[in-house]
């Protein structure tokens, strides 16, 4: 196992610097405990990059990302740029395309200590464990765009190769889980979805041990809040995956609990980030929930750095902190970002016991 890594930090906008700082503190506690070395480089992305560099992500930052072992990102976006010709989010899209991270993994699990934080009934949420696999570099987000005062369009394009490679990620994941893939599309209306359904069905033939079903996206949205335990691995395209994973944030009670991993070819740098946005309205107030970014760092160690032992320690640290009622305001608690971070770091550094 490797014991030295280069990690690029991209804090971004709003609460991004706070939650990335929290994750770095936990990673440093884990590094000390496991005797590994982590070298950091920090660069700008999003609104901060537009202000300082004149663009949402610089060529130098993209090159630094390619040269790293992994990238840990906070959040991008700020209302100051809502009507600007270039938005902060363009930097994130460009980074994803540059790294070739085509598969976005978003785990959504019921956390025993937080079940009552969910707006859904306990008997609906209890036992939920879903992995959303979202295609990340195709579809309407990356298609040719037209925009004027009277007409706008976003071209959605998918190729067989793009669908097949993300489908294989989903089926491989399902083999390690409960062996069920639900492919979400809109095949009754959209041509891209009909191709999606055909290709996913063909890929399924290579995985006879995995059960496949197809669900239209509107029905999937309903089932996520009505019967979420029916899902194991949910596979879908870029736009649908973005919307459904945000909806799924209500299962554990807050978007502040959802990490993500964006992966490309084996051996290439992965991109790890919380699902939530930049929340500029609470930036600097100590209210930001760092758990999603801390858990994203755990995913970084598992999926990109080859250290599942470190990932498990960080995840256990989060569980212990939550059981000890270290909850931020979005979870119904009164703990600050710093208090949560120190609680997780303390457990990870010790590797045992409770707080």
Give a verbal description of the structure.
- The strands form two sheets. The protein has a ten-stranded mixed sheet with strand order 2-1-3-12-11-4-5-10-8-9, sandwiched between helices. It has a two-stranded antiparallel ribbon with strand order 6-7.
- The relative contact order is 0.17.
- The chain has 355 residues and is α/β, with parallel strands linked by helices.
- Helix 10 (291-303) runs antiparallel to helix 11.
- It has twelve helices and twelve strands.
- The chain has two domains: 1-112 and 253-355, Isopropylmalate Dehydrogenase; 129-250, Rossmann fold (3-Layer(aba) Sandwich).
Chart the SSEs and their pairings.
Layout lengths: L3 E9 L3 H19 L2 E6 L4 H7 L5 H9 L2 E6 L13 H11 L3 E7 L12 H4 L3 E7 L9 E3 L4 E3 L5 H16 L4 E6 L5 H14 L6 E6 H10 L6 E4 L1 H11 L10 E5 L6 E5 L16 H13 L4 H16 L13 H14 L5
Parallel strand pairs: 1-2, 1-3, 3-12, 5-10, 8-9, 8-10
Antiparallel strand pairs: 4-5, 4-11, 6-7, 11-12
**Shape annotation:** globular
Q: Quick one: CATH class of the largest domain?
A: Alpha Beta
By CATH, the architecture of the largest domain is named 3-Layer(aba) Sandwich
Biggest sheet: strand arrangement = 2-1-3-12-11-4-5-10-8-9
Portion of residues within helices:
40-55%
- N to C succession of SSEs: EHEHHEHEHEEEHEHEHEHEEHHH
Distance between the termini: 30 Å
* Quaternary structure: single chain
User: What would you give as the CATH superfamily of the largest domain?
Assistant: Isopropylmalate Dehydrogenase
**What is the structural class?**
alpha/beta
């Amino acid at each position: 196992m490797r014991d030295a890594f280069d990690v690029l930090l991209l804090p971004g906008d709003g609460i991004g610097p706070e939650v990335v700082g929290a994750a770095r503190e936990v990673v440093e506690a884990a590094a000390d405990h496991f005797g590994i070395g982590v070298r950091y480089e920090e660069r700008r992305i999003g609104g901060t990059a537009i202000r300082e560099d004149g663009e949402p992500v610089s060529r130098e930052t993209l090159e630094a990302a390619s040269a790293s072992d992994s990238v840990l990102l906070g959040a991008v976006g700020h209302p100051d740029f809502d009507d600007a010709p270039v938005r902060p989010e363009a930097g994130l899209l460009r980074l994803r395309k540059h790294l070739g991270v085509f598969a976005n993994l978003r785990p959504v699990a019921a956390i025993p200590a937080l079940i009552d934080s969910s707006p859904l009934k306990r008997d609906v949420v209890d036992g939920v464990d879903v992995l959303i696999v979202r295609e990340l570099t195709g579809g309407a987000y990356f298609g040719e765009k037209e925009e004027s005062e009277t007409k706008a369009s976003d071209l959605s394009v998918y190729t067989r190769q793009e669908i097949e490679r993300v489908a294989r990620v989903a089926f491989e994941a399902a083999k390690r889980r409960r062996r069920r893939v639900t492919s979400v599309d809109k095949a009754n209306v959209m041509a891209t979805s009909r191709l999606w359904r055909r290709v996913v069905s063909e890929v399924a033939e290579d995985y006879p041990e995995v059960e496949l079903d197809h669900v239209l996206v509107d029905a999937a949205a309903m089932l996520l809040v009505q019967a979420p335990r029916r899902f194991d691995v949910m596979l879908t395209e870029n736009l649908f995956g973005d919307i459904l994973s945000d909806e799924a944030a209500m299962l554990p009670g807050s978007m502040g609990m959802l990490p993500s991993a964006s992966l490309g070819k084996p051996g290439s740098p992965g991109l790890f980030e919380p699902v939530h946005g930049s929340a500029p309205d609470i930036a600097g107030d100590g209210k930001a929930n760092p758990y999603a970014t801390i858990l994203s760092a755990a995913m970084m160690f598992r999926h990109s750095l080859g250290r599942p032992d470190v990932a498990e320690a960080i995840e256990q640290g989060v569980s212990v902190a939550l059981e000890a009622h270290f909850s931020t305001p979005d979870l119904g608690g009164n703990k600050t970002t710093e208090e949560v971070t120190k609680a997780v770091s303390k457990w990870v550094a010790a590797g045992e016991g409770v707080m």
